[in-house]
Amino acid sequence: MPLDPQAKTVLDFLSQGASLETLPLEEARASFEKLSATAQPEFVENVEDRTIPGPDGDIPIRIYNPFTEGAHPALIFYHGGGWVVGSIETHDSLCRSLANLAQCIVISVDYRLAPEHKFPKAVEDAYAAAEWVAENGADIHVDTGHIAVGGDSAGGNLATVTAMIAKEKGGPSLSYQVLFYPSTGAGIPSESQRENGKGYFLTTDMMTWFAGKYFETFDELQNPYAVPLKAEDLSGLPPALVITAEFDPLRDEGKAYADELEKAGVDVVHSCYDGMIHGFVSMVAFISKGTEAIEQAAEALRGAFRR
């Protein structure tokens, strides 16, 4: 399929600015925050910022609760940004939409970023947040029998890695995974990287910049908590929805991970959105297929929470 006209309009706009990897770190973070500010946040009944204890200090979280009373299923969400940029602010609009459409509480996690905090610090924060929600759900009106994890890009990586650790440690029990164009194959060449590595927002140069700040050594690329496609056994992970985009360098690794989950006996749905680019679910103000993907994720979550 050709590039979607709405996606092309976004790319034309983005091409007027500097690519993140060409900027000093703080400018790159500010640029990503500014780009995300174009979203139009939905109203959610209750939104609360708080901190929870983490392995090396407090972790900020934001809780989106579309209900006024009772205990409800929850999605723990990890934002994208290459483990280097992004925050609960950059993904505020997406989390609001997911809370309203999936009719669940969303807990967005502001995990530590690289290079100040290299691998595996983000992973440690991600799992600690899941543990905290499972253990303290009653305090935030969560039905702890129905907890899902999700995220986009690097956040999708953290979501499925959290599920891996939960399986290995025997908890917490997780109902589902929602993975928007997840990073699952850092360091593994693919056809989509060759096809889409330049000119489609996320570039191979940007990916290399992110990896250089997140990882300390090349050896870490053999660790499945860094590169989920390196996992030897994916059986027993929660059911998953993997959403990819046709013109995304991460397209093939997302599909490969969905295929590996299926081979391991995990109930998985993979949807590749034709004509789309990396980040499209955060571009719903300009790209209508972003809304379609969020609606698909919300429907999948509602189904998982009914089980």
List the helices and strands and how they pair.
Layout: H1 5-14, H2 25-36, E1 46-54, E2 57-65, E3 72-78, H3 92-102, E4 105-109, H4 121-136, E5 142-152, H5 154-169, E6 176-180, H6 191-196, H7 204-214, E7 240-245, H8 251-263, E8 268-273, H9 288-306
Parallel strand pairs: 3-4, 3-5, 5-6, 6-7, 7-8
Antiparallel strand pairs: 1-2, 2-4
Helix pairs in contact: 3-9, 4-5
Entry summary:
By secondary structure, the chain is of the alpha/beta class. It has one domain: Rossmann fold (3-Layer(aba) Sandwich), CATH 3.40.50.
If you had to describe this structure to a student in words, what would you say it looks like?
- InterPro entries: AB_hydrolase_3 (IPR013094), AB_hydrolase_fold (IPR029058), GDXG_lipolytic_enzyme (IPR050300).
- Residues 75-281 form the Alpha/beta hydrolase fold-3 domain.
- This is Alpha/beta hydrolase.
- The N and C termini lie far apart (36 Å).
- It contains 9 helices and 8 strands.
- Helix 3 crosses helix 9 (288-306) and helix 4 crosses helix 5.
- The longest helix has 19 residues, at 288-306.
- It is globular, with a radius of gyration of 18 Å.
- It has one domain: 3-Layer(aba) Sandwich (Rossmann fold), CATH 3.40.50.1820.
- The protein has helices at 5-14, 25-36, 92-102, 121-136, 154-169, 191-196, 204-214, 251-263, 288-306, and strands at residues 46-54, 57-65, 72-78, 105-109, 142-152, 176-180, 240-245, 268-273.
- It is 37% helix and 19% strand.
- The protein has an 8-stranded mixed sheet with strand order 1-2-4-3-5-6-7-8, with helices on both faces.
- It is of the alpha/beta class and 307 residues long.
